[in-house]
Amino acid sequence: MELKLLNDQGQAASNVAAPDTIFGRDYNEALIHQIVVAYQANARSGNRKQKDREEVHHTTKKPWRQKGTGRARAGMSSSPLWRGGGRIFPNSPDENFSHKVNKKMYRAGLCSILSQLAREDRLSVIESLSVDAPKTKLLSQKLKGMGLDSVLVITDNLDENLLLASRNLPNVLVCEPRHADPVSLVFFKKVLITKPALAKIEEMLA
């Protein structure tokens, strides 16, 4: 498998050899869906809380007498049948939303995503990417000159200038290979990997 090596103008200068075991796998839609859903579910904090009829702030006085009014019987206004009453089965803050995904499945899913990105020409390699100062304008002009508007940059060494310059760009994310998650790989239109980061990815997913 060969990946395009881009220059500073965003043009393909040459090709870089990449292993087929990582960048040449078949597209496994079910596996990719599973790891994306698991990643998003594991990010949930699970801190929502609802009150039952015992916890809502209501008086325990009987709203009206038992008989003779023509209305249904009512014991107290905190009943779950009433507006503002407690929930019958409330959500507790210790609810667990996590999904378990095996390491082999997770790595296979990442390889399937990377392979599909390479087939769709959304994955490219660059020698290095840096800016002289932590200025958003500098990075924005550089990416615009390369023809990139929505890009995930995976670099081996997280340069502080590059990180600070990318924080105010909503469609740009800079991360290390170990922090490249399946949701970001699928979300961004283009994935840009530096040459040293490509070696690390091959080592991680080998």
Q: What's the pLDDT, averaged over the residues?
A: 92
Write down the secondary-structure element order.
EEHHHEHEHEHEH
What's the CATH H-level homologous superfamily of the largest domain?
Ribosomal protein L4/L1
Overall number of domains: 2
Proportion of residues in helical segments? 25-40%
What does this structure look like?
The protein is an alpha/beta fold. The protein folds into 2 domains: 2-42 and 101-205, 3-Layer(aba) Sandwich (Ribosomal Protein L4, Chain: A); 45-96, no CATH class. Helices cover 33% and strands 14% of the residues. It contains 7 helices and 6 strands; from the N terminus they run E-E-H-H-H-E-H-E-H-E-H-E-H. Helix 4 (136-145) packs across helix 5. The longest helix has 17 residues, at 103-119. The radius of gyration is 27 Å and the shape is elongated. The model has no long low-confidence stretch (mean pLDDT 92).
